[in-house]
Amino acid sequence: MRESEAQVAVRLVFGQADGFVVWRNNQGLAEYGDFKVKYGVADGGSDLLGIAPGGLFLAVEVKRPKNKRIQDNQRQFLELVLSLGGVACVWRTKAQAEEQVRGIRNGQRKFF
Q1: What own/partner pairs with CB < 8 Å and gap ≥ 24 does 9-17 have?
Q2: pLDDT tens digits, one per residue of 83-110
């Protein structure tokens, strides 16, 4: 499974979960003539950003099922979200996403 397929699976879980809203956080560099513009929330910003029940900020880093490693800048972003009261997740499979949605509803905020 490619990471893009994992993102689709995780977004489908949210589409069926009441109280969750997520958006894809595209990141990259666009060139306009001599100008270069970075876009995306932040260096290491999670793949999906959103709102969890209760108005909590939600950051979801999506990895392929066999990819165990989170980059340092991704971990720093997730730790920042967590330290400010948000929900920070690393999701690799649809089943894991479903389990973590239940965990968020029960008050858990860290999933990595």
Answers
A1: 9/93, 9/94, 9/97, 10/48, 10/60, 10/62, 10/91, 10/94, 10/97, 11/48, 12/94, 13/94, 13/97, 13/98, 13/101, 14/48, 14/50, 14/97, 14/101, 17/101
A2: 999 999 998 888 888 999 999 999 999 9
